[in-house]
Design goal:
2 copies of one chain form a homodimer.
Chain A lengths: L14 H10 L4 E6 L5 E5 H17 L7 E5 L4 H12 L3 E4 L6 H11 L1 E7 L3 H7 L8 E5 L13 E3 H7 L17 E4 L9 E4 L1 H12 L11 E4 L6 H13 L2 E3 L7 H11 L3 E5 H11 L11 E5 L5 H9 L4 E7 L3 E5 L13 H8 L4 E2 L3 E7 L14 E7 L10 H7 E2 L2 E10 L5 E6 L4 E3 L2 E3 L1 H9 L4 E11 L3 E10 L9 H5 L14 E4 L13 H9 L6
Parallel strand pairs in A: 1-11, 3-4, 3-5, 5-6, 6-7, 10-11, 10-12, 12-13, 13-14, 25-26
Antiparallel strand pairs in A: 1-2, 8-9, 14-15, 15-16, 17-18, 18-20, 19-20, 20-21, 22-23, 24-25
Helix pairs in contact in A: 1-2, 1-8, 2-3, 2-6, 7-8, 9-10, 11-12
Chain lengths: ~550, ~550
């Protein structure tokens, strides 16, 4: 028979997600946020919708039309949240920009995206003033201040967010006919190697990501939850938490401008937050503060982290508090891919604690909606599930990106044969758990075999004299590459440790050919803004003879 | 700016849903089913996949190609489940047929769908033999028997399911390129008015329905669950439970051939079922059996019903056992639309029990992913949320049907302006809860006002002398229509009750103009196969003078 088709003209839209809270939980306090100048903001879902409509009218009056880009440089506040709801619901494109970009990257991202308006938090104005002459497409600035007038600034023309809202009508007719695969959001990569690259998101991918998130084996999100997304809105994976909370009639607590660990924990206590979402590094800082014993965090029942893998100590500290850390592996190009915890892993019951904690640091199983392959770096064939054979992680799925925005060359390198080539190197354990062991650009090939720089680093950092370590490959005439360790000692050990002191404990754990050829003792390692070691810089320094054995 | 689009070629597919169990929960016992001849069947997800591949090869060898229709007349067994997985994954179309159809409807549905092969359960062979000469498109029959040879039958050519599987290869390469909106399943309506009508389902609507189902405020489905779908697979809403269970790595317990309430409860006990899904009527029978105290049903934590609204006694009986009844409002054309329970309805805490139980009989709030309007029957405008103004329920959403299969005329009557016109009459309560009060064809219009036949029936059935009641409208020269009540008395009251005995309790609850003009005492009411009163028949009988006052 010829293939028949089912009529399916109903498009995936963002508007019905928000409208569910507005209609059915309209009188519930839906939004809370600390504000600038020590204020605080709270409102019902119905009132939040009134503000979102006012914002849409204000945007329209500033000339924002369908398809136009609206940029932001802002913290996670209620205003930034309102912008994240209003812009894509208008059929325009929301582009939250990374507040940690350097000058060059900020200019590049805003010009590449062609943002028409830029929304800026009060305390971030200097960052924008510094680059405003280079921003080619911005027609006006809106300062996200509670004040009627924007602060003194050279940005021009410039408006006050609240004043714009006050002047605008609280009624707006958001369109129902936005194509589900039209561009609704743009987020740019961190730019650790080269210039940032944009990834575009549609209503379709956002709706699918929201539905993929809420299940009990994933984030387990429900109407009862009070959700605090600490992950900044310039990361795409902050957005599905906000939209999901709206869809379910939950409650959103925005952490407000530049939240410290103290601010975060005080908010959890005061606003009875049930779900905390933050990067692993943010969670580590929060735990240090938590251990001071000053907070009643008994409302908290769900803790989600991402970005870098948590260490066992963090997982154990949370388990001691009765909380299981759910952590998800993902990336700017692929959103959330896998997570460690499923509701039941019965065979783990009765495992020794050490083994269990180690397992919980793994990247886990693909989420429903994503497909994962790990392919041998040499043969391109799927690796064995033996915890040993290394390969690159390939991903595709319902909300995985399929291209960079207006970057055909970069796209062709990363998105191939329908799969996103993540550049992550992993093994697959016997039960299918994904375990990342390196980045492709950092893994070391020696005599045709692969050496994991991450495994060596972790082992070196187990040495109590070591504060920080990075292992990188250097060219070798016979073996192709050989590992070298760069080590920062703890202050009290500086000058008192030999290369052999570092290498000898490794002999018990690794084959001889894995051991680094050299150990370099450095005062510090070159770091990115997101606290990752820049191994590329170490390799360049080695090549230039700047690192001495 | 012109609208830009995001590359999104990844299609929603059914195969990755099943493959997640096969890959990551492959050694887990995934399927259990009682079998014909008192046997039982159990296997892991990996072995289930082997059988599904064999089935696909067998189907191919019987000439089933992409787009071909595969029919079934069968109970919910593991074989029927395998067929429900294999056929749409091949790109063919699965058409499970209603085993309760009469001869005419069975012939009509199979011919209308153009089924090429028909899979038949052993004990249902006589139903098919009775009509086989009228089935125009069937090329062969497969008997779903554990035996090597099919039983003696005049169906021809005929094969044994297990023998076909034994001869087939356990390796099959299911395609990755099935268009997401291609026809994957066909289910036909009950045919209570006129001939059955087909509704087509695509991989897209099925995937969306599965994701829409699993959230904690909905079915709350996770890997830990052992799911028993008692709703027969010829109802589309049985399928999302099976696919969702596969996607999450849960466990499926099929209830097997013609399951009695005893069978269902024994299975819950024996297989430690956590989630029971059955029509309200099925659940009522199960409760009667449960109350005999013979079963340990402590594994059960989630009970879902559908079809007709549960009464307060059922909800209370379950709450007494520590179970909250989750019931969902839906229909053949729209799948699941709304449900009563959300995780939190804080304002209900402290309500009088009676008020709470009454609320739980309502149709509740639209699920995330569906949009609901209730429009005044006269003006077409959205009704007030006052629990009084009546209107027709309109639905649209991510998995709502948008047409009947090859029925343009019926489609144009029911699917209009992007909304499914359900024919249900409802009010909306203050908190947005939907409450169905009638069917459009049964509601009575008198002097320009609407009288709910359902409200009157419920009130009449509160009278302890009444076994059953139906209220229907008769034409009236002045008031347009007037209500008439048809009443079946309990045996002990027959001949001892007057019209006034029935009417007088109603005077306290309804305005005078609501009271039925006549009360007809009948020995029985005309019923459908699904135990609904056929009011159309009552109206016809009245018109023909067959009902006497």
């Amino acid at each position: 028979m010829p293939i028949e088709y089912v009529k399916e003209t109903y498009q995936m839209q963002l508007k019905p997600l928000l409208m569910r809270s507005v209609l059915y939980f309209g009188s519930k306090e839906g939004i809370y946020s600390p504000d600038h100048h020590g204020g605080e903001f709270t409102c019902t879902w119905r009132d939040a919708y009134g503000r979102i409509c006012r914002l849409a009218n204000a945007l329209q009056s500033l000339g924002v039309d369908r398809g136009d880009k609206v940029g932001s440089l802002a913290w996670n506040t209620h205003r930034h949240g309102e912008l994240s709801f209003a812009v894509p619901m208008m059929g325009s494109v929301f582009h939250p920009t990374n507040i940690r970009y350097g000058r060059e990257h900020l200019i590049y991202a805003v010009n590449h995206s062609k943002d028409k308006i830029m929304f800026v938090d009060e305390d971030l104005i200097p960052l924008v003033e510094d680059v405003s002459e280079e921003l080619k497409t911005i027609k006006s600035y809106v300062i996200m201040t509670p004040l009627d007038k924007p602060p003194q600034t050279k940005l021009s023309p410039v408006y006050s967010y609240e004043e714009l809202l006050r002047q605008a009508s609280p009624v707006y007719d958001f369109p129902d006919d936005i194509p589900e695969n039209s561009l609704a959001m743009l987020t740019y990569t961190g730019g650790t190697t080269g210039l940032p690259k944009g990834v575009g998101w549609s209503p379709r991918s956002m709706v699918l990501s929201v539905f993929g998130l809420i299940g009990p084996d994933q984030v387990n999100l429900c109407e009862e939850d009070t959700v605090m997304p600490v992950v900044n809105l310039f990361h795409i994976n902050a957005h599905n938490f906000a939209w999901a909370t709206a869809m379910l009639g939950g409650r959103l607590v925005w952490p407000g401008p530049h939240p410290s660990p103290e601010d975060q924990l005080s908010l959890i206590e005061k606003e009875k937050v049930t779900l905390f979402q933050g990067a692993t590094a943010v969670l580590l800082f929060a735990m240090q503060e938590w251990d001071k014993g000053k907070y009643d965090l008994s409302s908290l029942s769900k803790v989600y982290s991402g970005s870098t893998a948590p260490n066992q100590a963090l997982i154990e500290a949370l388990e001691d508090k009765g909380l299981r850390l759910h952590w998800t592996y993902g990336m700017a190009e692929g959103r959330v891919i896998s997570n460690t915890v499923t509701s039941r892993r019965k065979y783990m019951e009765g495992w020794p604690k050490e083994k269990y904690l180690q397992k919980m640091t793994r990247q886990g199983l693909p989420m429903p909606g994503t497909e994962v392959r790990v392919v041998n770096l040499d043969t391109g064939k799927d690796v064995a599930w033996d915890g040993k054979e290394k390969g690159e992680v390939l991903v595709r799925g319902l909300w995985t990106g399929q291209e960079y925005y207006n970057e055909p060359e970069a796209t062709s390198k990363v998105f191939k044969d329908s799969w996103l080539h993540t550049g992550d190197v992993a093994v697959v354990e016997e039960d299918g758990y994904l375990y990342l062991v390196d980045r492709i650009k950092d893994i070391i090939k020696s005599a045709g075999e692969w050496i994991s720089s991450v495994d060596l680093e972790n082992a070196i950092m187990d040495n109590p004299v070591v504060r920080q370590a990075a292992v990188f490959g250097i060219p070798h005439p016979k073996w192709e590459e050989r590992p070298v360790a760069a080590v920062v000692l703890k202050d009290e050990y500086k000058g008192r440790v030999t290369e052999e002191d570092i290498i000898s404990p490794l002999r018990f754990r690794f084959a001889k050919w894995w051991l680094p050829d050299h150990v370099l003792f450095l005062d510090e390692l070159p770091m990115t803004g997101t606290m990752k070691v820049m191994k590329r810089v170490l390799r360049d320094m080695w090549a230039e003879g700047k690192l001495k054995v």
